[in-house]
Every structure is written in C-alpha cells, then in structure tokens.
User: What shape does this take?
Amino acid sequence: MQYKGSCHCGRVAFEVDGEIDGALSCNCSMCQRRGSLLWFVPREKLRLLTPEDAASTYTFNKHKIRHRFCPDCGIHAWGEATTPAGKPMAAINIRCLEGIALAEIQVVDYDGRAL
Assistant: This one.
C-alpha cells in the first residue's frame, strides 16, 4: 500500500510504501514530548515529494538518529538511522499520514528512557 504524508503546512511531503502492522510509542526524552507514533520501514520505501532540504534535521544523545521535521510548522515527519546490520531505515510518524484510522492501529509501548 502507498501512503502520502506531510507536515502541517505542507512544506515537507512524502510517500511511503508498505503495510502498517503496528506502531511504536516511545517514552524517550524526544518522543515523549512530540507524541509521535512510529512505523519502521526500509529507507528506500520513503520517497520525498519535496526537496530534501525542505526538512530540517535534529540529532541528540549519540547522534545516530536524524530526526526530520519542518522548519516552518515544526512537525516531526520521520526519522532516519541504520539498523545494527547497517541497513538504512526510516521511522515514519504515522500521525502525518493521510487517510489512516489511528484507532485501528495497534500501538506498542517502548521504554526508550531505559537506553
């Protein structure tokens, strides 16, 4: 399935392919504050519809995850990192996707504060 997503103002827009089989709710210092629900896909399944530099990047702690967000409206749309095996991954904020029923998606809690 193909989904379209964007930030609130539309400056950052993307498409992503895959089946949403669940989402992760993390309680780390970043995720707790922004309230994202994350769906992990291989990075090649994410295609930007706006220029790469339309999104800003924030890193913290070990600087391994590139948190991508709109510099105008501030919405976090996705994050990028590599798996322990070295494969590029994207963590899509499903709250930014169009036409999905959030109540129907199983959400798993993740204790990111324990890391």
In short: The chain has a mean pLDDT of 95. Strands lie at 2-6, 13-17, 23-26, 38-42, 46-48, 56-58, 66-69, 76-82, 88-93, 107-110. The radius of gyration is 13 Å. The longest helix spans residues 29-34.
